[in-house]
UniProtKB/TrEMBL annotation:
This is DNA mismatch repair protein MutL. Residues 201-319 form the DNA mismatch repair protein S5 domain. This protein is involved in the repair of mismatches in DNA. It is required for dam-dependent methyl-directed DNA mismatch repair. May act as a 'molecular matchmaker', a protein that promotes the formation of a stable complex between two or more DNA-binding proteins in an ATP-dependent manner without itself being part of a final effector complex. The chain holds residues 9 to 331 of 708 of the full protein. Coiled coil: none annotated. Belongs to the DNA mismatch repair MutL/HexB family. It comes from Mediterraneibacter faecis.
Length: 323
């Protein structure tokens, strides 16, 4: 079982950012309104994630670390619904298989919390402990027992950059959650959790960007687009300014990028890319969910229609009089 977990872990856990992604998504699933993320050495030696969510009851802690163990799938219908949202019930077992992990968790109705330690997939201890409501994960020494994978890790600075990018996207897709991110004790990102996307954009990109936004809200062909576009005076030399979310999930899509850039063509200089934070709310039949779950690249089953709708939405918004 431990070997299988180690192999399975390779699918889910590639680098510190993969661990942070799984743990923060779990924290959000648990109803947290506040999530604190701390890393050291790019997350290779130390990751701590503290949430104020529902916690895990003591008698469910061990089970949560079993492969394919999830409390989130109830029906077959659910399965197809969330098929694109990541591996189900594999994160904790995978993380525990390739790290030294410590969990402290407490539900609101329990008097005491639980401290659980698991190293390389082997349980070390399970005991009562005093703790605040919510869950804290401490993850030490990624790949300490898998040297072959450790070799593929980049420098702490690069790994920290991946974590920062990830958290930026998670913050932009969850304005209702207050995020705090510290790298080696230094605060790198902080959002208020007040639910306002514009405020998150301010926190992530700063005042110059936040002062030059155009709100977009457009619905057609079963595609609802909301969010903010940058005025044509704010551009970048690369696509890092483009943030797309489909049904709450950060995605990369060459087609959406092209469509947005084409709509900006008459307004910005060549080789300049617009700022955009666009949320796409679509019904299932528009999205091809048969893509690798950890990949952010997704395909649409009705490409041309999606392209046209996005183009029109962006183009019309840019032509609005207040510009
Ligand atoms: P999944 O998220 O797909 O269900 P995971 O392996 O990520 O699988 O987590 C296993 C289970 O552990 C979850 O279904 C949930 O019940 C519990 N869990 C994990 N993290 C948290 C958390 N931060 N707060 C509350 N429960 C959690
Ligand atoms: Mg999970």
């Amino acid at each position: 079982q431990i070997t299988i977990d180690k192999i399975a872990a390779g699918e889910v856990i590639e680098r510190p950012a993969s661990i942070v992604k799984e743990l923060v998504e779990n924290a959000i699933d648990a109803g947290s309104t506040s999530v604190k993320i701390e890393i050291k050495d790019g997350g290779i030696s130390f990751i701590r994630i503290t949430d104020n969510g529902c916690g895990i009851p003591q008698d469910e802690v061990q089970r949560a670390f079993l492969r394919h163990s999830t409390s989130k799938i109830e029906t077959v219908e659910d399965l197809s619904h969330i098929a694109s949202l990541g591996f189900r019930g594999e994160a904790l077992s995978s993380i525990a298989a390739v790290t030294r992990t410590e969990l402290i968790t407490k539900t609101a109705d329990a008097e005491l919390g639980t401290r659980y330690v698991i190293e390389g997939g082997k349980e070390v201890s399970l005991e009562d402990t005093g703790a605040p409501n919510g869950t804290t994960f401490l993850v030490h020494q990624l790949f300490y027992n898998v040297p072959a994978r450790r070799k593929f890790l980049k420098t702490p600075m690069t790994e920290a950059g991946h974590v920062q990018d990830l958290l930026m996207h998670l913050a932009l897709s969850h304005p209702e959650v207050a995020f705090q991110f510290l790298n080696n004790g230094q605060e790198k990102l902080r959002t208020s959790g007040n639910g306002k996307l514009k405020d998150v954009i301010y926190n992530v990109y700063g005042r110059d960007v936040a002062a030059n936004l155009i709100e977009i809200d457009y619905e057609k062909n079963g595609i609802h687009i909301t969010g903010f576009l940058g005025k044509p005076i704010i551009t970048r030399g690369n696509r890092n300014f483009e943030n797309f979310f489909v049904n709450g999930r950060y995605v990369k899509s060459a087609m959406i990028s092209k469509s947005v850039e084409d709509a900006y063509r008459d307004f910005v200089m060549q080789h300049k890319f617009p700022f955009a934070v666009l949320h796409f709310h679509l019904s299932g039949e528009n999205v091809d969910i048969n893509v690798h779950p950890t990949k952010m690249e997704l395909r649409f089953s009705r490409q041309q229609e999606v392209y046209n709708t996005v183009f029109e939405a962006v183009h019309r918004t840019l032509l609005e009089p207040e510009l």
